[in-house]
Amino acid sequence: MTDITAMILAAGRGERMRPLTDSRPKPLVNVHGKALIDYHLERLASAGVRRVVINVSWLAEQIEAHVGDGQRYGLQVRYSRENQALETAGGIVQALPLLGEREFLLLNADVYCDNPVPQLLECKLGNDMGRLLLTATPEYLPGDFALLGDRVGQKRADQAAYTYTGLAKFSTRAFARLPSGKRPLRPLLDQAISKARLAGELLQGRWLDVGTPERLAQANQTPW
């Protein structure tokens, strides 16, 4: 059993997945007969993580009804409720009182991948803001960053581009002094890159961003 808390990002509207997400939150979309969020919850429990925070906004009551208090997964689940989705960094800032004082795992609810939890637990932060799990950029995405050793850098034309998988370990200190409100994560990552304080490594396994109906169909056709 580990003492770390995990946060699952589940507040978004899922605009690119409409009309399916007009009546169902994206974390509850099924892949191979199971809600996307269930893959994360079951893997966290099997790895010994016990405390999970889920931020919710769009159709929040459906997620809360589905997951409940987490007991059926072997977890203790708490919710960070957002009146409107605060984006990633804003959601983390609001959830800080639930995340503990040192480090936390961060998982986007809408990714389908091989189990990333053991790799996340093994990540060492040291003095870094965080450590991102990256993947080779798929053809449907532009790519986010360069990776030089274990340092994340800005994407450059003369270097391979990698995509942030939405899976990471972060220090709570990196968010502790930020004001509340809607706030994206990317500017904070860029600041950390400028100070050489953002680490990264390649995800050990397969990964798919389930962001559109086409990629949902691809996930359901992938026999993982």
Tell me about this structure:
There is one protein chain. By secondary structure, the chain is α/β, with parallel strands linked by helices. It has a single domain, classed as Spore Coat Polysaccharide Biosynthesis Protein SpsA, Chain A (Alpha-Beta Complex), CATH 3.90.550. 25% of the residues lie in helices and 28% in strands. The chain has helices at 36-46, 60-67, 87-99, 117-122, 186-194, 213-220; strands at 5-9, 30-31, 34-35, 51-56, 76-81, 103-108, 111-113, 130-136, 145-148, 151-154, 162-171, 198-202, 207-209. The strands form four sheets. The chain has a seven-stranded mixed sheet with strand order 5-4-1-6-11-8-12. A hairpin with a 2-residue loop joins strand 9 (145-148) and strand 10 (151-154). The chain is globular, with a radius of gyration of 16 Å. The two termini are 26 Å apart. The mean pLDDT is 95.
